[in-house]
Structure formats: structure tokens, C-alpha cells
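Appendix B, record 7
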Amino acid sequence: MDITGEDALQLTGIFLVAGSVGFTFIMWLGASGKLGPNRWIGYRSDSLLQNADAWATGHRAALPIVMITSAAALLLAVTGLLLPWLTVKAAVMFLAAVALFGGGLRGQHIADEAADEA
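C-alpha cells (predicted):
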């Protein structure tokens, strides 16, 4: 069984959709206080792991950018899944990955700053 470029892009799109939804859900859990400080899931830096208040404050501050970039990644990934042209599909999937990764990095920075101020 050979995996084609089309198959790989379909899998990439599915992972990007799941990642976008999952990342937003995890950030929401951290921001709402339903997910406390831990070393396995959520943003995990020294400033966020100080206490439950710093954890929730940081995740709450990062939630808007995470929601925006995850929504953009989700929209791009779904669009990419529906496109018939392989090259354009690959470019759109790449943009979705950049949006999700960039939002995650920016969110970490925002969360650290908010936790330091808490």
C-alpha cells in the first residue's frame, strides 16, 4: 500500500483540524481553572507553574490569540481538505500549520507576561 501526496495532505489536514480544536480546548480548560498547573498539558513555564492563580491568569491572557489563530488554522485546514489542486492544498495546509504554531508561540509569550504580573 503506497501513500500518495494526496493521502499525506489529507492526514495533515485532519491532524491540523484536531490540533486546532484540541489546543483551543486545552487553553480554555487552563483559563477557566478546570485544568490546574501541571507538567504535561497546557503552557508549562516556571512563571505559569508558580501557583494556580498565575496558571489561570496566564492561560486567560493567552486565550484570545489562541482562539483567533486556531480558528484561522481550522478554516485553512478545512479549506485545504476541500481543495482539488495538490499544490494549492499543500500551500494552504502550510499556512494553517504556521497559524497554529505562531499562535501557540505568541500565546506562550503573552501567558508568561501575564503570569509574571499576577
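Remarks on this record: Residues 86-117 form the longest helix (32 residues). The chain has three helices and no strands.
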